[in-house]
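User: Let's play a game. I give you a shape written as tokens, and you guess the letters that built it. Ready? Here's round one.
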């Protein structure tokens, strides 16, 4: 068995084999989703707290549905409605949750490292649903799952990520996952948001869109993370669209079977126009569907699940 971890905190520390175990388990669980009885009660009697201290729609809903399908008891906890607003520290909030015998904490937080901190101080299993600009491991896993399902492999593919790389936790997790599984990663966007330092992670960096997308098998578009940018590092929306926006004219530069991906939320008309977002090369909604199976797989594995064979046998 190639999964023995109690938590999922990042992609950086996973081995390629562990990543593949998650993807294989998710594939088996996606099959369960097609059956008449869609539940797989691996988490019956366990309590999961969804601790979202930063806004989220897709990720939170997706985790919640995944938890329901695993028959867990679910508590939702959002920053606006909690004592975090009253100045309670993260550690105190977490200790209180633990005093209620919580088994899993799914956390989204604006501070990088918040999930790692909880994993150190608590007994519960911790799953990172996005920490600051650091990592968003389940997003990377669902991106890898979608690419593998569509292309049959990850190894040897050219994957281009366009946009605000500097402030993107999705980009960081994707880069780790893709390079570990043998893809060639190209980064493109305004130079203020795509520093050359990313070459040290094994990526190619280019500021020329045509060059970036010409040989791509997959193009992953990112939103400009205005909320994280401390200074104005963004050239302006019109300039961004002119140099980096994806639209049918730019699609003509790409391979005919390129996949268009986006973690959401999309800013239509900025990083991608509507025709391309809703077009036949787009797998954006498939990513959302696959997110559920991937999150089920992660919860199942950190709970001690044995991998895809246990799902298939059920
Ligand atoms: C991303 C996030 O929150 O990191 N969205 C998501 O999880 N689906 C990307 C973003 O906010 O742009």
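Assistant: Ready! My guess for every position:
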């Amino acid at each position: 068995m190639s999964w023995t971890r109690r938590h999922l905190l990042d992609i950086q520390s996973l081995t390629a084999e562990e990543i593949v175990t998650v993807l294989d388990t998710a594939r088996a669980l996606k099959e369960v989703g097609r059956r008449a009885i869609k539940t797989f009660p691996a988490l019956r009697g366990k309590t999961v707290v969804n601790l979202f201290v930063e806004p989220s729609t897709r990720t939170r809903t997706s985790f919640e549905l995944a938890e329901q399908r695993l028959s867990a008891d679910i508590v939702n906890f959002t920053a606006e409605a909690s004592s975090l607003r009253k100045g309670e520290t993260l550690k105190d909030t977490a200790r209180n949750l633990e005093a209620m015998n919580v088994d899993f904490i799914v956390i989204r937080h604006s501070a990088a490292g918040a999930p790692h901190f909880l994993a150190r101080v608590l007994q519960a299993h911790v799953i990172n649903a996005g920490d600051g600009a650091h990592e968003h491991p389940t997003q990377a896993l669902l991106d890898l799952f979608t690419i593998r399902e569509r292309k049959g492999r990850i190894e040897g593919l050219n994957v281009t990520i366009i946009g605000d790389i500097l402030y993107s936790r999705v980009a960081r997790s994707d880069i780790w996952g893709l390079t570990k599984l043998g893809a060639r990663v190209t980064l493109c966007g305004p130079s203020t948001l795509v520093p050359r330092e990313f070459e040290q992670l094994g990526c190619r960096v280019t500021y020329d869109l045509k060059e970036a997308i010409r040989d791509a098998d997959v193009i992953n578009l990112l939103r400009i993370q205005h909320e994280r940018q401390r200074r104005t590092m963004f050239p302006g929306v019109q300039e961004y669209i002119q140099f980096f926006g994806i639209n049918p004219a730019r699609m003509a530069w790409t391979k005919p079977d390129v996949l268009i991906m986006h973690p959401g939320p999309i800013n239509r008309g900025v990083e991608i126009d509507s025709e391309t977002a809703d077009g036949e090369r787009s797998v954006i909604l498939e990513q959302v569907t696959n997110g559920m199976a991937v999150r089920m797989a992660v919860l199942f594995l950190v709970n001690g699940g044995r991998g895809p064979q246990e799902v298939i046998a059920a």
